[in-house]
């Protein structure tokens, strides 16, 4: 737990100092989540050892809750600070991208962890993080659609072999919104509630309140910066989904139902630093096999699980250039299929 705590909270501290004081601290935060992460991943290419089977991690939940609470002052305070001006263009850009990368790589990964934890409190905090990033529907679509249909045609967030990221992103955003709503409407019907009484009212209403609050506090400049931060974070989550399931498919089983979700149906990355920064989200196969397993306990098996050729953040950058991505990944995906 010390590794997760040190790596994530060091970035939070740098970003907070960058928001308040600016200058070199804003550049330090950006360098930490890009250059430092890249080089430390290269120096420690092998993953940290697996935790003992059956171990419990109460401190893991404490860190997730801490990161979830700190997310809000960084998001809203960062948007207002950038809107207030008084910074040079380069410094403002460094702070914006440092915050946006944190929101997409750490806050999104942490919200994902929280919605999988037992108890209403952690789940509500995870939903609130997604709502604040104008992506509330993901809390429903991820659990009710992605975890059921991952690596099949019925999952909007599983990229097809040969599909470029930009085409996937539009299809996945729109498709997951609709599929998540249909799943929630079915749950409401089974409970005897009208179909409009779903969490989507909270997702849309909460997002509107967040946007109008920023608008009231900082004007249109702050609202536009806030929207840009949210969009950037959303694209990073979609990149993560794209990379972690690209081209992998479950075979049809009996009665046309797909085979059970297995180790070979998700891409994984073993790098220790970026893995800790994203709360072991790159250990994706084990998460799908054991959705309730706390992130410090996720395991990695290089022989049974597809392994990405580079760390997850590096692969996400490569995915932005579809021809390069396909040259690197199509052959690997076909081998696992």
Can you put this structure into words, describing what you see?
It is a single chain. The chain has one domain. Helix content is 67%, strand content 0%. It has helices at 2-21, 24-43, 58-84, 89-115, 120-132, 138-149, 165-190, 200-245, 272-277, 284-289, 312-319, 322-336. The protein is built from 12 helices and no strands.
Task: Identify the notable features of this structure and list them briefly.
single chain, 337 residues, mainly alpha
Put simply, the count of helices is 12
* Percent of residues in beta strands: under 5%
How many individual β-strands?
0
Task: Evaluate the radius of gyration.
Answer: 19 Å
Shape descriptor? globular
Secondary structure: helix percent? 55-70%
Order of helices and strands: HHHHHHHHHHHH
Average pLDDT: 94
- Report, as a whole number of angstroms, the end-to-end distance: 35 Å
Overall structural class, as computed from helix and strand content, comes to mainly alpha
Show unreliable segments: none
Number of domains: 1
* Main sheet makeup: none
């Amino acid at each position: 737990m010390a590794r997760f705590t040190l790596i994530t909270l060091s970035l939070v501290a740098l970003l907070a100092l960058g928001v308040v004081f600016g200058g070199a601290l804003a550049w330090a935060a950006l360098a930490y989540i890009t250059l430092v992460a890249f080089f430390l991943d290269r120096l420690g290419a092998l993953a940290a050892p697996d935790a003992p089977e059956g171990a419990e991690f109460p401190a893991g939940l404490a860190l997730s809750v801490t990161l979830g609470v700190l997310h809000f002052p960084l998001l809203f305070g960062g948007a207002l600070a950038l809107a207030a001006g008084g910074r040079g263009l380069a410094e403002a850009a460094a702070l914006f991208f440092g915050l946006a990368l944190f929101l997409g790589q750490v806050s999104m990964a942490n919200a994902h962890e929280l919605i999988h934890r037992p108890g209403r409190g952690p789940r509500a905090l995870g939903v609130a993080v997604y709502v604040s990033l104008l992506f509330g529907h993901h809390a429903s679509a991820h659990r009710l659609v992605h975890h059921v249909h991952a690596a099949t045609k019925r999952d909007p967030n599983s990229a097809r072999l040969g599909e470029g990221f930009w085409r996937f992103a539009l299809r996945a955003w729109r498709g997951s919104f609709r599929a998540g709503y249909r799943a929630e409407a079915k749950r409401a019907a089974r409970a005897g509630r009208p179909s409009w009484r779903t969490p989507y009212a909270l997702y849309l209403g909460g997002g509107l309140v967040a946007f109008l609050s920023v608008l009231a506090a900082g004007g249109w400049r702050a609202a536009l910066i806030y929207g840009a931060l949210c969009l950037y974070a959303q694209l990073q989550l979609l990149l993560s989904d794209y990379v972690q399931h690209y081209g992998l498919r479950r075979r049809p089983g009996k009665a046309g139902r797909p085979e059970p979700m297995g180790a070979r149906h998700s891409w994984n990355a073993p790098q220790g630093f970026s893995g800790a920064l994203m709360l072991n989200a790159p250990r994706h196969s084990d998460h799908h096999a054991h959705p309730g397993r706390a992130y410090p306990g996720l395991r990695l098996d290089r022989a049974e699980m597809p392994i990405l050729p580079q760390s997850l953040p590096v692969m996400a950058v490569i995915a932005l250039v579809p021809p390069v991505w396909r040259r690197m990944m199509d052959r690997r995906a076909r081998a696992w299929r």
